[in-house]
Amino acid sequence: MSLQTARAHPQETPRSEPRRRLRALVAPEPRRRPKVAYAALAVAGALAIGAAQVGISFATTQDAFVLAQLTSQQHDLDLQKQALHENIVGLSSPQSLASRADTLGLVVAGSASYLRVSDGTVLGSGDVADWTSTVNPNGSTSVGNALLLPPPEMPPQDEAPADDATASDTGPALPPTVTDGLPSPTTR
Predict the structure, then answer these.
(1) Cα distance between residue 155 and residue 171, in whole Å
(2) Whole-angstrom Cα distance, residue 5 to residue 10?
(3) Which of 34, 91, 118, 156 is deepest in the core (most CB within 10 A)?
(4) What percent of the chain has pLDDT over 70?
């Protein structure tokens, strides 16, 4: 038997195509009413999404106001820190220390003397200081220090000068303080 004859050839069966289900309609089928539950669910979902967006918007806006307030407080604290630092610099200056020592009755000796702690000997001239100081920090030869002087008193903003000549002599007029929002013109 040859290979050709031994091979089985499949028998093809004719396929029958499915029948189409066509039928003639006498009247169109009645339209189904949409269910109210689905419509209510869709409207409720849209309202929930809108309410969530409004809530998030309010929270974001509130956070922005809090951030602006904290930024303003930080700016004020930075200004206070700078003013306190300037006070410390002024009080720790040599001129301030000499002035305070003079008010306490301390005097400056002519030459320096040192005490060696290991054996207790005095190095230098060893003279006792007189009751008069060689340096007078509060005298007429002292140099002015702006950090030691108290800040000048500013007149209150509510009071206006009596005449314009005095205002021009003291310097440029300061802008008005804003307490109740931005100034706006009065309309009638």
Answers:
(1) 13
(2) 13
(3) 91
(4) 64
Rounded Cα distance, 97 and 94, in Å: 5
pLDDT class of 167 with cuts at 50, 70, 90: very low
Residue 46 one-letter amino acid: A
Give just the sign of the alpha carbon dihedral 70, 76, 79, 83.
Answer: negative
Look-up of token digits 């040192």: 114
Q: What is the pLDDT of residue 6?
A: 57
Q: From the CB of residue 182, how many other CB atoms can be counted at a distance below 10 Å? A: 5
Q: Is the pTM of this model over 0.70?
A: no
Give the C-alpha separation, 127 to 129, whole Å: 6
Cβ contact 95:142 at 8 Å? yes
Measured distance CA(106)–CA(131) in Å, rounded: 9
Residue with tokens 């310097």: 171
**How far is it, in rounded angstroms, from Cα 68 to Cα 91?**
35
CB atoms < 10 A from the CB of 126, how many?
A: 11
Number of C-beta neighbours around residue 137 at 10 A: 19
SS3 114: strand
